[in-house]
Amino acid sequence: MRKIWDFHGGIHPPENKDQSLGEPIAPAGIPRMLTLPVSQHIGAPAIPVVEPGDQVLKGQQIAKARGPVSVPVHAPTSGTVVAVEPRPVAHPSGLTALCVVIEPDGEDRWIEHAGLADYTAEDKAALLERIRDAGIAGMGGAGFPAAVKLAGRPGAEIDTLIINGTECEPYITADDILMRERADQIVAGTLILKHLIAPGHTLIGIEDNKPEAIAAVRRACQGHDIEVVQFPTKYPSGGEKQLIEILTGRQVPSGGLPADIGVVCQNLGTTVAIHRAIAHGEPLISRVTTVTGEAVDQPRNYDTLLGTPMAWLLERAGYRAADNNRLVMGGPMMGFTVTSADVPVVKTTNCVLAPTEAELPTPPPAQACIRCGMCAEACPASLLPQQLFWFAQGQEHEKLEQHNLFDCIECGACAYVCPSSIPLVQYYRAAKAEIVQLRQDHERANHSRDRFEARQARLEREAAEKEAKRAARKKAAEERAKKAAESGDAQEDPIQAAIERAKAKKAAQASAPAGDSRDKLEADVAATRKRLEKAEAKLAEAREADDANIAAYENAVQKTRDKLQNAEAALAAAPAPDAPAASSSGDAAQDAIARALAARYAAAELSPEEKARADLEKLEARLAKTRTKLEESRSAGEQDKVIEALESTVVRLEDKIATVRQSVGMPAEAEAKNQGQTTDPAALAIERAKARRAGTGKSSESPKEVLERNREALNKKLTTTRERLAEAREAGDDTVVAFEMAEAKLADKLARVERELAELEEA
Amino acid sequence: MEFLQQQPLLAALLALVGLGAVFGALLGFAAVRFRTEGNPIADQINDILPQTQCGQCGFPGCRPYAEAIADGEAINKCPPGGETTIQELADLLDVEAIPLDEEHGEEKVRAVAYIREDECIGCTKCIQACPVDAILGAAKQMHTVITSECTGCDLCVEPCPVDCIDMIPEQTTVQSWRWGLPRPSTVNADIIATDAPQGQAA
Which partner from A167, A695, A749, B164 sits 20 to 30 angstroms from A386, CA to CA? Predict the structure, then answer.
């Protein structure tokens, strides 16, 4: 005989269990509609994997587990999924939650399933996987996923396995009848759990108000190392922590779990479900539910498919709605009132209670606390309920936590004994909820603050990096300038050389007295012309793209043109050159300029074709040189930057050569175009490019032909734009506005061209 | 020595001055050696503030407001925190809890920003406005809100050029539903005739 301990407090409410024990378990049958909430357990709600219209078989998974602390949901019978939507569920809030609604086809066809012949041969992890896949959550009330509980925590040594057959709450007899009728299944499930956990002791704890159940379980346990322990009836000895204390004398520490003291506790119903899952491969699709209360004619236990509406069960039991004052899911102590009889039975529904007003009267109005202390005597967790009530009223959360509010199991013993009928548990629930909410808010706030600070730090870092880059650039530029000032002459680097040249040129211009030698003036003219060409090209581009900066470009072109005129006038006024190349000033930079100018003059002497060929030769020579350099630096393993720069130079040179070759191919036109206009090679190139862009048009076509060609192109563009606009409109795109604008613009342009054409014809 | 023994007044004076100098030096050293970084009270205040970083208080973020409160700013300028935060601040600072300053906004249900994605033009303006980097997207790409990171601060709503951001109040679900306190009417029951409101007593 095992020593039995006692826990503090506890009450002895009228049991009212006999009413529903007169008849054996009866199948509740298949209702017209099954509503299966995806969240019937503690943890993340399952994710539906079926859609309305799908045919499902009995035992088929209809929602899969989300994350580790979650279990799947299965179809309790075969039929058609008619909806996956929020429906009212059994919850004190009366809110709706996502449900899978199945219309049974009445055939009750099973999906293919098979049990394990010998589970002892299986891996522990595989067995846990099976239990999880069967959707088994604790069926005692909380609905904690069984596989998570059984997996335990690393390092926690389990010495005692307790099967909870206490069922201490009045009215409920689901476990009692299960023990009487299916003791063999309970023992089979217990053996599986024993195999999984390998505890030193295995106990089945049953209150002494269930002698038949005790006898049945004892019979079934014969030959197995399972101890059936009987102990005096007291509410709430079925609470996990209380049961552990009764059977082992050990107390679960505040805020701890039974596993912390080497105990695992499982509900009877869960044990049976685990047996069915392992031995038969059947998922959790039904449970035994007590239907009782004076408002039903035949109170009894039903084997109920999950998802069955409460109304269906009540109908079976002969429900008299007129006599009933409220419908309770669960027992009278810990159950909650549901708002409608249509809510479904879920994995944790052990009882449907339909009492009359005389049986379970509406609680009388609460009166003031008289500090009698009866609640403290009744509290199974040794708390001070009246103090907690006081602090809950004043929302003193810190004090509540100091008084171990979170050890309250909400059993309702304090409210039961309260002579002032204060709904104490409701205060504790509200206070707990408030504290949990505040904790969550605080956590969120901390998280937000971290993110905010991280963002702040990032912005600062970016600003600092930008600043540092700017400073580095500035410093580099200054250094370069200093170096240039020191060395004075051009270096190997072509870019540096170009900068040097530009600098030298500027210096030369600045140092040369105004109205000086003719070559300077000519260079001036050439440069200005070059700038003008560039500006014009840009203006044209802008016009084409309908840029907002047209005015600015026009202005620039006008200014440059003025400058060019001035420069040309100055050149005309200057005396004729005698020997430009000879004017050596001794300065290296000026010498270089002079040489370049001389080369330019020499080039100007040549015909465009000859000049192009000369250019080509020069470019090819440069290309060859650069290529050798590239090869050299590659083999020498120079820095990537250098190699990259050289590579890009090669590409550029190749491009240039291609352009020049092309221009050599049509020298006549270039000649015709450039005659008497410019001698500058760069300007020539631009001219050539322009000519190419205009195609053969500008030189050979008449203005009228040009306009006509323009009109055609615009017409074509307009048609495509209209087509696309129509498409966009049909598709209801956001781009409609953009297309409309484009259409208007094109139409505008077309009108202008046509007007010009008309004017031309008139002329 | 002899001289001091004969001048007890001077001796006492010297002793006191000496003690003063020694302790003064000790305190001075401690002040330098154990200096606290930052403002500890501002840290505590910042811990209480809801960290929405919405700026409704008129300060650029929760931390600046916390510092301002530490320097004597009113504690009732935080609408997202509401009465709870004011109460906590009052407890911490040992001042009178005052009602929320309506000038800075009302206490509202917690909301989450939602971008109507087909209307988003990908301008990134909301991304730049979000104080907690809760908006995901790139230029000319549709943006979206990371719901779990959104503090509901409203700061992204105003910069949106196409007004495609909604603030959706959080819905109560079965998971987020909480028990409330019992209704007061069931607490203060009419037990005797004089409990009834005036005029109804028979």
Answer: A167
